[in-house]
Amino acid sequence: MRFRPRTVRARLALSLAATLAVLLAAFSVSVYATARANLLGQVETRAREDLALVAHEVAEGPLEVSQMEDIGLVALYAVAVGDEPVNASSGWVKRGLPMSLPLANDPETKRWKSAEGLTYTCATTSLDIRGERVSIAVAQDERHVQKSLATLATILLVGSPIAILAAFLGASVLARRLLAPVGAMAEAAARITEEKLSARLPVEDETDEFGRLAIAFNRTFARIESAFEKTRRFTSDASHELRTPLTALRSVGEVALRDGADANACREAIASMLEESDRLARLVDGLLVLSREDANAYRARFAEVDLCQPASEVVDVLRVLADERGQKIETEIRPGLFVQGDPTILRQAVFNLVDNAIKYTPEGGTIRVGVRADGAGEALLEVADSGPGIAPEHREKIFERFYRIDADRSRASGGSGLGLSIARWAVGLHGGRIELETTEGKGSAFRVHLPRARAAT
Amino acid sequence: MRILVVEDEHKVAQAVRSGFEREGYDVTVAETGEDAFFLAQSEPFDLIVLDRMLPGRDGLQIISTLRTRSILTPVIMLTAKDALPDRVAGLDAGADDYLVKPFAFAELAARSRALLRRGRMDSSKSLKIADVEMDLASHRVTRGGQVLHLTAREFKLLEVLLRNLGSVVPRELLVREVWKETGRTDSLDNVIDVHIARLRKKLDDPFPVKLLHTVRGLGFHLEERTE
User: Fold this and answer.
1) What pLDDT band is residue B184 in, cutting at 50, 70 and 90?
2) Is the full-model pTM beyond 0.90?
3) ipTM of the predicted structure?
4) B-interface mutation test, from A284, A327, A354, A356, most B Cβ less than 10 A away
5) Does B84 touch chain A (CB under 8 A)?
6) B85–A348 C-beta distance less than 8 A
7) Which of A139, A218, A260, B192 has the fewest CB atoms within 10 Å, measured from its CB?
8) Burial B152-176 (b: 16+ CB within 10 A, else e)
9) Cα–chain-centroid distance for residue A51?
């Protein structure tokens, strides 16, 4: 298995150090090689210059240069005639350099190793001087060059690891500082639990990457919090709504069972209990509709529906209620606006809207139901009333489950508190939206926009 | 007429049994899927009322096995599940009707009557109670020879009540038969009340003998009663 450090910080520092090591190694090798070539080249040049000087001296003077002294600054040289060594400087002899010299027509350079283990750069040449074949050699001690190169190597070999280590530590410290917000975020996120959803991640700088990350997370947390809050409220609302009929059932039953209740009172009590159980059943059905998530099961049954159909049918069914209240229902329902949908569910949505309008419009008012194309070419169903309108603070909430503007009144009129929620759910299922336009004191209009099943012809 | 009631909830089973017995049926109750399956195969029944969720054997399984063995006794399925796919699955398996819990017994009784009647063509062209006569062909209703002017909805309402003489007609049945609604979430209670009031005004108000009565919590029925 490959080695893989556990923290991002270690991974970052290690990879930086490794990169640096490779770079430094390549750099060191090339620096060393260049320096060595340069230095040795200089030594060689000097050897050739020395060779020329010695050759000149030998050609001018007698061959048997007996004095074993330096020629100028040249301390290491040797002269041979044929294979016989003739002369060598005292330095040459002392350092144990070879006395037999190779024959070479052109000057050439070689590197020799002495018996003492020192290396020399030698330049040799052979000349014809007064009928004799004379070989000349000079040598340059490389000791100082080797010393310089050794120093350079030491610097590189010792310096590189130090640099790498420094880089590793530096990167480590830097990464720790850079990544500190991540650790803080992780800790803060761990503290955000179901019970404490209101907590948020710290945002140090809104503009940098971590800040943006924290802000994005915070938005998600906010959404989760509001979803939780909605669920909590729904659960408490639902249990309240369910408890009301249950309480009625229980207390009516208890009263009827008391001594002295005659048969008529009992019948009365049982009838009242049956009514409450009907109410419970309806409530549970409504909740079931809303809790259903398998929207696909519905879409599979979608067919083309002329929107005028559910609209006219609902008006036809509910008109009697409006009549009873002295209200007028005006319709302007155009045929031919087709939508993809489930007729039952669409009808339910329209029913709830019209039913709602009748309930909340005072006696003698007017309700308008219209079906037409809207400006954008979508199908529009409009249910408008001449009721009291809806105050701004209620406008968003009336679509929420169990939300009631006037709790006592709507419960008395038989509302489950789910009508508009179901309408919105139904419209959403069909890919549409509900808009509410309302003026206090003048009335409200619910407009349902639905995508059309086929292009207008 | 023999009815097999398959229901594991004892209270519900006993209520359904006594309800049917009161209507004059011979009732057998099975509380497990195995018992139900055995009984349905070994004894002849005219109708089976089958709970969907049973210990031992699922209601859907029972019904499809019965159908593959050519036992074609009509089946009304009872279920606490109201999701559309469940309803479809029930009918696909071979159920003849489908009733969602909680249900009104009167509703179950009415649907049972309808299923038992099926096959025997109802050839009567007119329906009667006391001095009221409904002519189905000409859509005319008379009481004591006097023509009552009913709207289409009122006519249908009276027809359903007349077809179920002797028993209380629950609101659910009216919703289904008169208004052709399938869902239960939208309450038509107010609408029904208005229509009943109007029908009563035309049918009963001018006459001393009252026919249309409300049974609170249950529904409506026609009965001769002097008040």
Assistant:
1) low
2) no
3) 0.76
4) A284
5) yes
6) no
7) A260
8) ebbbbbbbbbbbbeebbbbbbbbbb
9) 73
